[in-house]
Amino acid sequence: AQTVTQSQPEMSVQEAETVTLSCTYDTSENNYYLFWYKQPPSRQMILVIRQEAYKQQNATENRFSVNFQKAAKSFSLKISDSQLGDTAMYFCAFSLRLSNDYKLSFGAGTTVTVRA
Amino acid sequence: EAQVTQNPRYLITVTGKKLTVTCSQNMNHEYMSWYRQDPGLGLRQIYYSMNVEVTDKGDVPEGYKVSRKEKRNFPLILESPSPNQTSLYFCASSFWAASPDTQYFGPGTRLTVL
Q1: Which residues of chain B lie closer than 8 angstroms to A104, CB-CB?
Q2: CB A36 within 8 A of CB A91
Q3: Would an 8 Å CB–CB cutoff place B50 in contact with chain A?
Q4: How far away is chain A from the Cα of B43, in angstroms, using its nearest Cα?
Q5: CA A87, A32, A82: angle at the middle one, nearest 5?
Q6: Interchain proximity A47–B107, CB inside 8 Å
Q7: Residue of A1, A5, A104 lying closest to A50 (CA atoms)
Q8: Nearest to B25 by CA among B75, B88, B93, B98
Q9: Which residue of A9, A35, A45 is in closest CB contact with B90?
Q10: B23-27, B38-42, B78-82: lowest mean pLDDT where?
Q11: How far apart are the C-alpha atoms of B112 and A92, rounded to whole Å?
Q12: Is residue B102 scored above 80 in pLDDT?
């Protein structure tokens, strides 16, 4: 079974500064996907960024970037130039796509508060 | 507009009274899934479906039922709800064959069982 661990329940950051969220996972598989989802107060789940395990290059999406360390099974999210609209809960997620199965596992979440 | 819809958005019920939460998607997705979200536990998968008439248990299936008679609909059924099923529920769908990562989530259903 795959597990995803987010060790930071809450984080606070000043507007325009940078914050990094940590995520570790456990799997014996070699091919998988990793994601960060954002859940603002509206509760909608929004995909922020994704990473395929076979790609060495770290994914980037505007102000959001990841640091993927496959050997360490670590997948951190960096939010640069934080904006008030970034205030949300962030979930790290892991998925395997097997021949006849697909499962997405989530971490417990990190609440990020951006201060004005 | 491509979307996943859930109804109702809020529901307060009593122990033992059967209820159904509907989920519908208009994107012709094969894959659909139900999750529950609880504080400190993230989202946990209840049931999922790879296609019509194909359903499988997720991590926390006890007390729930699902059906997939049509591609677009994936209702979640609680035959005899209990207070420990008070939670926030999300339905999601994706083209699992093409891009399994891009899961589209519904707006969520807040369920309270008294």
Answers
A1: 33, 45, 103
A2: yes
A3: yes
A4: 6
A5: 20
A6: no
A7: A104
A8: B93
A9: A45
A10: B38-42
A11: 26
A12: no
The answer to whether the Cβ–Cβ distance between A43 and B101 falls below 8 Å is no
Closest residue in A to B55 (Cα) is A101
Disruptive mutation site among A104, A105, A106, A110 for chain B (greatest number of B CBs within 10 Å): A104
Q: pLDDT value at position B95?
A: 82
pLDDT tens digit string along A27-63?
888 888 899 999 998 888 899 999 988 888 999 999 9
| Residue spans of alpha helices (H) in chain A | none
- What is the C-alpha to C-alpha distance for residues B48 and A86, in angstroms, rounded to an integer? 30
B6 to chain A nearest CA, in Å? 12
Cβ(A48)–Cβ(A76) below 8 Å: no
In single-letter form, the type of residue at position B81 comes to P
Closest CA to A95 of B92, B22, B24, B66: B92
Using CA atoms, how far apart are residues A64 and A18, in angstroms rounded to an integer? 10
